[in-house]
Structures are given as structure tokens and as C-alpha cells.
Amino acid sequence: MKVNEFIILDQFIISRYTMAVLPHHLHGNSYAKVVEEDGEYVVKMRPLDIIKRSCDYYGASFRGRRDGTRAVIGVTHKAPIAIEPLNEIYVFPTISPNDSRCVWISHLHVYKYEPTKNDQTIVYFANEKSLLLDVSYYSFMNQLYRTAQLRTKLSERMEARERKLQYVFRMDRSNGWQQR
């Protein structure tokens, strides 16, 4: 269904093309507006429910991803979420995820950001779209850096594991073991 130039969906899974998930009110209902590289959709789900469903879709619970963030970088409040690290799908909340005004931003798509005079932040995406967020510049910058730290640490761990596996494989082959 299409309303006011938005396609309305019953459900949604975040992908590499998702730039932001915002709260959206339509006909007295609390939904989400999803901003993708190539369009925008209204989804009949709350933003946090989209984040949780996306985590489930990629094989981990939201709680597990949140606990993983705490284990990797020690962040417990407004934690960035690695929805699917192999595809670089990392999102972060602008305020508490339980707050109905929370916006989720994809780290991959943030091109630049700047403060406004009203203690808000304008976020520019790589495809030249932008969003005005009701969050301070410093809070936004902190969330962005936390997410960068999570991405870096997880990437380093995945690369170290891959190097170790390659080393073990080479050692096994040099000792006469053959892969079958």
C-alpha cells in the first residue's frame, strides 16, 4: 500500500542499504520510517522491533548482540549493535533504545555530520540525503565513535582468526595432511 508517497510494509529486515530507522506516526499508530539508499518506507513496526527482528534474521538475538557489545568494548548504555558484522551492518541509537523517539543510524552510511544552533545534529549520508536529529552534536559523535570502535575490534578479531586458520591449515598440509 502507498500513502503520501511512502510504501507501507508490514515488516522489514535491515540490510547494507539501510541508512536509518526513525519513529513515525501515521493515523495515530507508532510505526517506523526506514530510509534506504534508494527510497523510504513506512513499516508497521516500532524501530526497536525492526532492530530486534533483523538481529534474529541474521542469527543472533538483540540481547546477545547487546551483550557482545559490552564484552567487546565495555559499553552498556545506548550500545551500538552489530546486526551482521560480515556485511558491515552496524547501527547505533541516538538515545535510549526504549525511548519512543530513538532513531537508529547505520554507521556505514554516515558521510559527515555537523551541529545546528538548536543543539541538534544534521547527518549527511554518502548518497547526499540528510537527516536533522534531535540529539546534540557531542552525543552523536560519541555514538558514532563507539560504533567505529566496535567495528574495528570485531574486524580485528575476525582477521586474526582467519590468519590463525590459514596458518594451521598450512602447517597441517606441510605435515602430510591432505584436505579431502
UniProtKB/TrEMBL annotation:
InterPro entries per UniProt: ComK (IPR010461)
Native source species: Parageobacillus thermoglucosidasius (Geobacillus thermoglucosidasius)
Domain of life, per lineage: Bacteria
UniProt record, GO biological process: establishment of competence for transformation
Pfam family, one: ComK
Protein name: Competence protein ComK
Taxonomic lineage: Bacteria, Bacillati, Bacillota, Bacilli, Bacillales
